[in-house]
Protein 1
Amino acid sequence: MSSFRSRQRSQSSRHFIRPLDEAGTEPQAPAAAPVAAPSRTPAAPEARAHGRAPVAIRAERVSAMFAPCPRGLEGVLAEELAALGATSIDKRNNGVAFCGDNAVMMRANLESRTASRILIQLAQGPYRSEQDVYKLALTIDWPRWFAVGKTIKVKTDGVGSALRSLDFISLKVKDAVCDRFRQADLGRPSVDTRYPDVRIHVFLSADQATVYIDSSGEPLFKRGWREDTGEAPLRENLAAGILLLAGYDGSQALLDPMMGSGTFLVEAADIALNRAPGRLRNFAFRDLRSFDAVEWESVQARARQAEKPLTALPIRGSDVSVQMLVKTRHNLKQAGLHGLVQIAQSDVLDTRPHAETGLIVTNPPYGVRLDEQEDLALLYPQLGAWLKQYFSGWTANFFTGDLRLAKLIRLNPKQRMPLFNGALDCRLFVIPMVAGSNRAKEGVSG
């Protein structure tokens, strides 16, 4: 058993099922968003979420949009968008359709903790062949959206489409974009598949094609602070969503005793300080003709004014690996959290609470090899005993792809929330520890 615990977070020996990368995953592509009626003034939503006040949107520039997210976080994302001023909110598989103006679009990019992208719907229509999709894309006034000097990339996803090649659809839509520019005697934009200025997304259902322009650029889980990671780090928007599902609002004590590179710690601190998760990065909407620099500065200023003063937080993290401790310390510094979150090198079973009550939120290892599976089967009952002995009054939240945990930990999870880490089927097991159970004499650590 000691051999497993000594390598819990060792980068050289720990094995995970790695979630798919951005090129091959994120939700199975967005479903179509409802088309907004520009002549109507949407009502401001009453919902408030995570310290953000709702904002009424102006009727003259309302657009239909879609925000993909990790599967299982659609409800959390819908609450976020409502608080940011979105209307016509409609939860779909792997995301949320909504309506809003430019300010809502900018705020969603800057302030949403759980969205993967913010896509603006440009056209939607029926199709039967590749040529139908080309004709649909040709109806869009592309020069109105961006200058010919901007580089482009087209990506197509589909569910239930009978067409043979999604890559061929991407090629046809690229041709339509270039043809529309040539029709206006503007030349043609160049393609850049690695670092495009403008990303165009096409989604095919069984009989409907929808064309979007991406206002985000790099996926929104790339916050701008991470430079180095451990193996298969948890994506930031998934980590934030797990914290919110666990009920974390920034006021509770929080512990991650298997912190890896510290993703839960950074996201928890941003929630506690009410800081916009996108404050350190750039966005693709700055390359669109609709970009309003004055409005963008106003959106940023509003977010900065909502931040709480920097102060030491009741957030703790630990890991058995010295290497992960170094990575987490670096990530906290990059995120502007140096000295605000305490971390330490410690085996999970040697970690103790730092408050009478609080939340444990952690992502235990889930191995793929047989020997790792056997080691984990031995670890889980020890985790249960550790919780009962030291963490009465706390609530433990384990996010894992190893569904045996619920049975082998020998505790009764109150909730088993289905979530996906990329394509991997996972659960968030929520286990409240009743106050007054077998807390050892060590008590609460400082």
Protein 2
Amino acid sequence: MTREQLIGTIGKNGKRIQLRGTDLAAFDFSGLDLTGADLSFSNLGKANFRGAILRQANLSFANLSGADFTDADLYEANFNFSSLENVDLNGANVEGASFNFSGRSKYRPVDTTRSEPITLTNILQKPGWGTLIGAFLGALLVYGCNAIIYFSNLILKAEDPLMVGLYQFLIVQNMVDGATCFLLTWALSGWLSRQFKHIWQRHVFVSLAVTVSFFIINTALYWTIGQPYLRELADRPGGIEKTAAWYVYVLGDLLIANIFLYGLQQGRQLTRKLSEQEFQLLNMEKLKTRAELDALQAKINPHFLYNALNSIASLVHENPDKAEEMTLLLSKLFRYSTSRNGELFASLADELEMVRTYLQVEQVRFGNRLTFSVEISNPALNELQLPQFLLQPIVENAIKHGIAKRADLGRIDVRIYEKAEELHLCVHDNGPGFADDMGGGYGLRSIQDKLKLLYGDDARVEFQNWPLKQVLISILMSKIRAVNLVSAPNA
């Protein structure tokens, strides 16, 4: 898809853009209005979103590594489980955006230690003019409460039914005006944030809306409630005392409405700042998880190295060709172990190749006492990215506690298949069965901890003695794909 084709799609029938699961790496989205667009599960590595409007857009589970969101409008956008490695969010509006379990970025929140945000709480704490504003608000609230008490008391004590009706009308009128001011401002607050970038524009619009509502509501209340009382009192000499002009009462409604709007906007700013803090905490949590996974990466057992070297030494004179073969296999195994370059994941094909190499080394050591097979039901599964050293410790455990305890032929079968939307990794051996309290050594415990960190409750390890003795790892396929997408390297 070209940029021109995308622009043509945006304007068609006013529909939201649907680009779910597409490859748009390095695509130029700059300045485009992508409000509500669905870009989930897409490859958007190094895409240019500078100045783009992505309000309420869905970018969950997307690869956004290296993407540029400078000055973009990301109001209430969904970045959950997205890869944000090396993303530039400087100047972007992230108000209400969700970054749960997303990666790291170059985004830096405003340094509040240098410039304190202007909030009602901070204003009231300031001496001088802050104290004056607090005193004015306090006087306004107390005056309003006392007015309600005063008119309520007049209604209870007044003997003239016309005056009772007038007081009731005034109370209803003011209460309806006050409730409308808040409800109208509350209803418009979110829409105003999306439509107007400048705060003064939002206040002007609210003021106009409240003024219109003032005339509509008070006209309706006059004809439905107040007309009979006001007309009769107007005909009575001295019945109604002269009051302030209508626009003075409008100013009161406008003051209250703008105070409400200010408070609601400050609440949204607080939500935004909390989102920024959560974003940083999630980055820290991801770094912590990365460190834990690094610590859990399996290391080749030193005893295996000792046994392999001893086997090579014994074969040097008896069977030099076999010794050379085992040396090359051992070299290949350690090359895989030491050339990770900080990567936590490897393709399933690489993992299985590593397991085959490990078993070939052990086969030289055990000779005819060990046979093995490594099978995968669907070649497409080879491309899945899984944690490194996921199978090798299980195979090593099968050698140590299964094959080594048999005097006759031992067999290990590694089978990989998909069933019920889960990936199953099975390691079967024909050694003695697992004990009832089988917990496994460090290698098996590290696998369980690694799966828990990466996949949560969507992965499990089972030790089975029936119908076959095997260790079974089951991982939800959708979870594997989601983790693969988030952990994918920069495009």
